[in-house]
Amino acid sequence: MPHMTDTETLKVEAGENLTWNVQPLLHEIRHALVKLLDDGGHTVIDLRSIPLAPGEEEKLLDTLGRGEIVAQLSALGPSEILETRFPGVWLITHYNNDNEVIGKFVEVCRLPRILQAPVEDIREALENLEAQLAQQTGEQ
Prior knowledge:
- There is one protein chain.
- The protein has 140 residues and is α+β, with helices and mostly antiparallel strands.
- It is elongated, with a radius of gyration of 22 Å.
- The protein is 34% helix and 21% strand.
- Strand 4 and strand 5 (101-108) form a beta hairpin.
- It has 3 helices and 5 strands; from the N terminus they run αβαββββα.
């Protein structure tokens, strides 16, 4: 890479190809769908860890589109879970309390892990429900 002087500027031009990472990402998603169908494999792609030129993330998101499911979660800040137009491909965005994006992921799976109830929470729910039922039985 040539050395730049103080008067030179790095030019990034918007165009169809940019860094050429959109097409490989789509192929990676395709491979993840094959894996999901073959063995139930769960794939997570961290979009913040992949170099994308201006406009490329939007191009990727436009290609993925929107599906039928949208979920919002409030835990340690808001999160949005969107099914893309390709079932099994989810876009998950985490925000801080200032509504700034702090994480953006493509998850290829039947149901994103963030929406799955942890076993510990289910166990606690069972205990709480049993305690409530026992209390109601005692009141009758």
